[in-house]
Amino acid sequence: MRGVRVALAALTTYAPVLCYHRIGGPLELGVTRVGRSVFARQMTALARAGWRTVSLEGFAARTIGVGAQYAAPLHNPPQEFLLTFDDGYASLADYAYPVLADLGFTATTFLITDYVGGTNTWDVRYTWNRLQHLSWPAIERWRGRGFEFASHGATHRRLTWLDDATVETELTRSRDMLISRLGAGAGRAIAYPFGAVDDRVLSHAQRTGYELGFAGVKGSGTALHLSRVPVYFWDRGDVPFGLRSDGIGALGRLAAHAANRCAVGTSVMQGLGARAPGLGKITPSPEPRAPNPKPLDEKPCRHRNQLRMPDQRVREDPAEGSLVGRNLVDRARQ
């Protein structure tokens, strides 16, 4: 725990934002899976060091109106952060939410609304079997316990590669579904798929009615272009890189930015799948692809195809709910 206290320092004038994807579950040929024991240890260490999570509603109150770059300073800048999850995998309800609930933490999960209750056929198959997404009943149960949900698009398509009509459809359909199922607050924010956003997408998001938009590591600081730091499988320390102010934190954020920019494999395979069924996405998305799916400022690389490191095994029993969370926290404290 001594290293935790050394690494913590004042970071920004408003709450930093962390982004996880998968917690636990099968290994994958990718970088987004974080082991259950690693996640529990990180959250427990942060709680012991005095960190607390801020709700999306509370975060919005500090950014909307005055703009994120002019947000009022927190009373204790290193004490609060916004915890987010992308994609809405079902394993969150088994291995992440119970841990957070036992610590008094909360989180916001960005959902791919067309795939709620289904499997991740929108993605390249990086695991042996397809992965299950949260169902609406599970989402509603955890929402009742203080967890928040928002948009990650309708089908997780790279918005900067789509024509205007398709972008509008992606943003509107997702927001309308969330509002109809969870209420107006669920339509407040969007996390742009792959963190990909430009001025055109920002204009569409504003017209659609979103108040907050989360991109990658290097956002502009405006309310619809906020920064988030992804937590990938190599980020295994007690304090994730996004909450560190030292050189290791800076290097980790740079690596996360590079990995995020290189995560174009899914988008490319989706485009190929539209031309040759069986490649990439199994169930084609309902909207047509843009004719030229490769932007000039994004270059593919191999970062996505890295085998994840196995994490400590713990008993898997989703039926036990928060008991599993308590077991994970207890293990992390030992």
Quick description:
With 334 residues, the protein is α/β, with parallel strands linked by helices. It has helices at residues 2-7, 36-48, 56-63, 91-95, 97-103, 136-143, 164-182, 199-208, 247-262, 265-275, 322-333; strands at 17-20, 22-23, 33-34, 52-53, 80-87, 108-111, 148-151, 189-191, 212-214, 229-230.
Describe the structure.
It is globular, with a radius of gyration of 19 Å. It has one domain (2-333): Glycoside hydrolase/deacetylase (TIM Barrel). The protein is built from eleven helices and ten strands. Strands 1, 4, 5, 6, 7 and 10 form a six-stranded parallel sheet that branches. Helix 6 links the parallel strand 6 (108-111) and strand 7. It is α/β, with parallel strands linked by helices and 334 residues long.
Average residue-wise pLDDT:
80
Q: What is the SS-derived class?
A: alpha/beta
Biggest sheet features: 6 strands, parallel
- CATH superfamily heading: Glycoside hydrolase/deacetylase
Q: Let me know the number of strands.
A: 10
Order of helices and strands: HEEEHEHEHHEHEHEHEEHHH
Terminal CA distance:
11 Å
Provide the domain count.
Answer: 1
Report the CATH C-level class. Answer: Alpha Beta
Proportion of beta-strand residues: 5-15%
Rough outline: globular
Radius of gyration in whole Å, from Cα? Answer: 19 Å
**Roughly how much helix do the residues carry, as a percent range?**
25-40%
Number of helical runs? Answer: 11
CATH architecture: Alpha-Beta Barrel
- CATH T-level fold name: TIM Barrel
Q: Low-confidence spans: pLDDT under 50, at least 5 residues?
A: 1-12, 68-76, 278-326
